[in-house]
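User: Hey, quick favor. My workstation is busy. Could you predict this chain's structure for me?
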Amino acid sequence: MSYLDHFSLRDAPFSKEIDDKDLWLPSSKKALVDELIESVEERSSVLLTGDPGTGKTCVLRALRHRLPKEGFRLTYCHNATLGRRDFYRQLCLAIGLTPSATAAAVFFALSKHVEDLAGTERVHPVFLLDEAHLLHQDTLDHLHILLNYEWDKRALLSLILIGLPEMEQRIARRRNRSLTSRLARRLRVDPLVPDDTGEYISHRLALVGCSTTFFASDAVTMIHETTGGAMRDVDRIATAAMRITARKKRKLVERDAVALVIEAETPRS
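Assistant: No problem, here it is.
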């Protein structure tokens, strides 16, 4: 019998496969989504940072779900390790353009597309550049030019850079001041607080048909203390603790099951 059958669940509660509409966000992350929407509506650009697993992708998915389809076009790019020409070729492919051979031609095609969207279709493009802390410096040097139209008079594009906290120091270097001056907001995704972790676990269980949580309160506390409120780590440890509990033929996930997961993940000296 699988652990899902043991707990009478129809699906894995902590799977990555979850619809945008079913995402759970604490008030702090809802406020971030509000700020992102406000920035995009103002035609501004943003730097969004956070430690791994704290919910940056959830915030972006919530933005995608809430941003009106009429008037905005989101383009998501996650491969930030490319050189400048290949980076712009990736952007072209993402928005449905056939990339040209040279970097200059690729950049021209991309710029022309942005201008056409704003002029003819009256659509505001929003580029989401994930893992921005991995961007090559020559690509970073060039990004501000994407935001410069008609002598810097018009904002035809919103750029949202998403990365780890070290991106804040990198963007602050004097060499990047042209781009920094065009980032109207700098937002930070923080980990969950203890009450958030319990609410998050209950929400994910409810999505798969469980009306009440079967995680003991001290087990939830231990999960939070171990993960520091990083949602991705909460998912992993909660799932592993459920498997251990099912093997023991118990119906309540208790602290000892979480402790066994943590012990198994702790490197041995």
